[in-house]
From TrEMBL, chain A:
SUPFAM superfamilies: Composite domain of metallo-dependent hydrolases, Metallo-dependent hydrolases. Pfam families: Amidohydro_3 (PF07969). It comes from Pseudaminobacter soli. This is Formylmethanofuran dehydrogenase subunit A. InterPro entries: Amidohydro_3, Formylmethanofuran_DH_asu, Metal-dep_hydrolase_composite, Metal_Hydrolase, Metallo-dep_Hydrolases_sf. GO terms for molecular function: hydrolase activity, acting on carbon-nitrogen (but not peptide) bonds. Residues 41-461 form the Amidohydrolase domain.
TrEMBL record, chain B:
This is Tungsten formylmethanofuran dehydrogenase.
Length: 543, 360
């Protein structure tokens, strides 16, 4: 079928296209205008903006920790309102079904779950497969696992490390690799209560830095498109800016992605030992071109923090609101689920400001990514409001006026006049994520791209405009019309698939037999286990 | 061989599916009881939404209190892998599910490889008979005949250096073991603990973590039930005992207690999904029973019986396993023509709303 979307303002920075024009779709792909000029169906997009479908690089949308958060907080589902109700289970609060619907309504068509424990990859993929409409992907967690830490301690060869990373990524159907407080969970199991970048993991004699550098180098050698995705040590701790800066400086010319940088922006200054260090961090990012970051913006309200940084979550229990939490001493990273309410008090206001400062002080929209670290900083349903804050200094001023002045004294935010343009929004949420994740087929509107297209009707309210798309096409299929879901379709989980080396597989089988009393089969699964047609799509590694 | 029955009469599969769909369409309050694999659970929940039903798992009372530990309080939990590799002290709290006995034996036969300790010591709170045979020696901790909850409370008090009404037998030995321990793990289940006892145990674990590390391994009373709990969580946001009668999912552990709904006469159709051949069939006189069961004959009293396969025996399956604390695939050990419950449930849904497939 040939589809023409006509008369809209096209914003496609990856192809340098900006202005009124047409987008043509043939079946699942975007095509050049056909010579005939005849379409099977035409959509009038006059008064609208057209962008590629948005890509969220860091949103906790599925897996054991997310599901435990649901279990822990049945009373919190209202945090994810409003609920569409035209399609099965889409009105189930904070369900996988609702997740897909709400993302699609905002014009997001690909979302990455950034923390998949390899040992429970099947669980993660079962959940992702029940998220309708959008494509997904997941990053496999390494860096608190005995096998890797032992190899580093024993000076294993780069080849052996690469073989292990390859097996992990391939067997868990991951899109890339994430490290979370490298070595921190292993240290916490031995009752270590603080852990920084150059601290030593007990029993292994290796530092967090060594773990990060080992994984960064391996991911790069293997040609996995997405750089190592790093959740630094000392998240949320006053003084963490130094840790984040040290980690960025350790990139040493190779690509490195730092997740939710806002949570490391707390300077130990002022009478409360809590002030914004966003300007310092933004300077480091601006002067370290091999580094990319996502923000993890805080928005006010109730949420729940979900993290595989077990040590951090253990200490966050005391601030749980409501007063309940789950801490997992699971094999590998473990994790924790701690509900939290961001209040517009001094501390909440500083956190809110830091995120916005990072967005506004980091010069290059290709290296700063739009996230709330859903749901850690805020549910992703807060995105429309966040877009408005980035694009309107007047809106920022309105919110600032309601916040404690003492907090704003410790932030540069009130002085920042920058307003994001639609082109910068398109870079940050479309073109740049595609480049960062190695997607050639999306994030742009050029011929040959998947026809993931979001059409927004212009409105004085940016939040209204970007929160409810007029039209959304996924693979050329119209799935949202006038802000409502029309029907389900089932996307894929995107993965890399490097070839696994047989010797490593044998070695891992022996390891699992001796250490867990289980064969390696317990930790792998066939694609057919997912019960969806073609549940996975492959993203090629660099050659 | 017959695979479907309407009442006691043999029927074709299509006829049985039609009859089941007819009963569900006419029902004002259908309820579902689940004892199946993950895909059977997914299809059942999706069908429950379609017909406005409520669902629970088999043995729902025990699992309701296990889920209540999470919904009401939370806690600190280890998995079996970390327990095997790191726990140098094991404390068995109350009776555990029979399926966990091989783990206890395995823990007795091995030592932790991720701990500087090269021994593993065992203690029991409750009845020593809760330990399986050949699981090694264990030291009993008890406050006489005061029961599990009182012993746990006394242990908390003793560690907090408060007075207790009764002494805890072998406390000094236990305190000395914990002082040396790097990672003690308490094993418990809703099978052997009520909610207050589980909360008291988590209080003790939390207290111990103020200065050192400790954790708790939850061994759910039913593995299939716990797997269904996970699927229910991601599909609806809630654990089982969720109902769709109002058009959207509502979780209420009393209102949607399926056994209570049947007994109180609220339910008019009961869909029983059980793949295990030894699953006890419901014996109620109230609602019309649609039985999807591993059976060679009509289930007594059922309005409709459809024979389904056993997950992992007749067909490949995805199941929850306590051993890794997550899902695994199980290949069919005796592949047969017996259909998976999920496929029957989808067929019923297709009859109820033709052309609108279930989302699972």
């Amino acid at each position: 079928m040939l589809t023409r979307i006509t008369g809209g303002e096209i914003i496609d920075p990856a192809n340098g296209r900006a202005g009124i024009g047409d987008v043509w779709i043939e079946d699942e792909k975007i095509v050049d205008p056909p010579q005939s000029g005849q379409a099977d169906r035409v959509f009038d997009a006059s008064g609208c903006i057209l962008m590629a479908g948005a890509i969220d690089i860091h949103s906790h949308i599925g897996g054991g920790n997310v599901n435990t958060a649901r279990l822990l907080l049945p009373e919190q589902h209202k945090a994810h309102l409003p609920r569409p109700d035209a399609t099965p289970l889409s009105n189930a609060g904070w369900s996988t079904f609702q997740t897909g619907c709400l993302y699609a309504k905002m014009g997001f068509t690909t979302v990455i779950e950034p923390a998949m424990p390899p040992g429970s990859a099947l669980h993660t993929h079962l959940e992702l497969a029940d998220i309708p409409i959008i494509d997904k992907g997941a990053l496999a967690i390494l860096g608190n696992d005995d096998f890797l830490l032992s190899m580093i301690r024993d000076n294993a060869s780069s080849q052996a490390i690469d073989d292990y990373v390859t097996w992990t990524v391939a067997s868990s159907r991951a899109l890339g690799v994430k490290v979370i407080n490298a070595g921190g969970s292993m240290a916490f199991r031995e009752n270590v209560r603080t852990f920084s970048f150059d601290d030593v993991v007990p029993s292994y004699g290796i530092t967090s830095r060594q773990i990060v550098k080992t994984l960064q180098a391996s991911v790069n050698r293997l040609g996995i498109p997405h750089p190592l995705h790093v959740h630094c040590n000392n998240l949320g701790v006053p003084g963490a800016p130094d840790t984040a800066a040290e980690t960025m400086s350790a990139a040493e010319g190779l690509p490195l992605h730092l997740a939710h940088l806002q949570f490391y922006g707390y300077a130990k200054e002022g009478k409360r030992d809590f002030a914004s260090a966003a300007a310092q961090l933004a300077h480091v990012v601006n002067t370290t071109p091999e580094v990319t970051i996502d923000v993890g913006q805080v928005m006010f309200g109730q949420t729940v923090t979900i993290s595989s940084d077990e040590m951090r979550q253990f200490f966050a229990r005391v601030s749980a609101s409501p007063r309940k939490s789950v801490i997992y001493d699971w094999d590998g990273n473990g994790g924790g689920i701690v509900p939290y309410r961001y209040r517009p008090d001094y501390y909440g206001a500083v956190q809110w400001a830091i995120g916005l400062e990072l967005f506004l002080l980091i010069d290059d929209p290709w290296r700063v990514f739009f996230t709330t670290d859903h749901p850690n900083g805020a549910p992703f349903t807060a995105y429309p409001e966040l877009f408005e804050l980035l694009m309107s200094r007047d809106r920022r001023a309105e919110v600032i006026a309601e916040l404690p002045r003492s907090a704003m004294k410790h932030s540069t935010l009130p002085t920042l006049a920058r307003e994001y343009t639609f082109e910068e929004i398109a870079i940050m949420t479309r073109a740049a994520p595609a480049r960062l994740l190695g997607f050639a087929d999306r994030g742009h509107l050029g011929a040959g791209a998947l026809a993931d297209v979001a059409v927004y009707r212009r409105d004085a309210s940016i939040a209204k405009m970007l929160g409810s798309a007029a039209l959304v096409f996924k693979n050329g299929d119209l799935v949202v019309k006038d802000g409502e879901i029309t029907h389900y379709r089932w996307g894929k989980a995107l993965r890399v698939n490097p070839p696994v080396e047989a010797t490593m597989k044998r070695r891992l089988d022996e390891y699992h037999q001796s250490r867990y009393g289980l064969s390696l089969d317990w930790f792998d699964f066939p694609d057919s286990a997912i019960h969806r047609e073609q549940p996975f799509g492959e993203v090629p590694c660099r050659t | 061989m017959a695979v479907a029955w309407i009442g006691n009469r043999e029927a074709s599969l299509e006829q049985a599916v039609e009859q089941a769909a007819s009963l569900l369409k006419a029902s004002r309050c259908p309820v579902f009881t689940l004892d199946t694999d993950i895909h059977g659970t997914r299809a059942a929940i999706a069908l429950a939404e379609q017909v406005g039903g409520a669902y629970d798992v088999a043995g729902g009372e025990v699992m309701a209190r296990e889920t209540a530990l999470y919904t009401d309080k939370g806690g600190i939990f280890a998995d079996a892998s970390e327990t095997r590799r790191r726990a140098d002290v094991i404390v068995v709290v109350g009776s555990l599910p029979d399926y966990a006995w091989p783990l206890i034996a395995e823990l007795a036969e091995t030592v932790p490889d991720l701990s500087p300790s090269n021994i593993r010591r065992f203690f029991v709170i409750g009845d020593v008979d809760n330990l399986p045979p050949n699981s090694g020696t264990a030291t009993n901790l008890s406050c006489g005949s005061s029961g599990l909850g009182a012993t746990l409370a006394a242990l908390r008090a003793k560690f907090a250096k408060r007075k207790t009404a009764a002494p805890v037998e072998n406390f000094d030995q236990f305190a000395a073991a914990l002082a040396e321990s790097r990672f003690p793990v308490f094993l418990f289940s809703g099978k052997g603990c009520d909610l207050l006892e589980m909360e008291m145990l988590q209080g003790l674990v939390s207290d111990l973590n103020l200065k050192s590390r400790a954790s708790a391994l939850h061994l759910p009373a039913s593995e299939s039930g716990w797997g269904s709990m996970f699927a229910s969580g991601w599909m609806t946001g809630f654990p089982p005992r969720t109902g769709f009668g109002s058009g959207h999912p509502e979780y209420d552990r009393w209102r949607f207690d399926v056994a209570r709904m049947i007994e109180a006469g609220e339910a008019d159709v009961h869909v029983w999904v059980a793949g295990r051949p030894d699953a006890p069939a419901p014996s109620h006189a109230g609602p019309s029973l649609i039985a999807l069961a591993k059976t060679p004959e009509a289930v007594p009293g059922a309005a409709v019986t459809i024979a389904v396969g056993t997950p992992g025996i007749d067909h490949d399956a995805v199941v929850f396993t306590y051993r890794t604390g997550t899902f695994r695939t199980v290949d069919a050990t005796e592949p047969s023509e017996a259909p998976a419950a999920a496929s029957i449930l989808r067929s019923i849904a297709e009859v109820i709303t033709p052309g609108v497939p279930l989302p699972c």
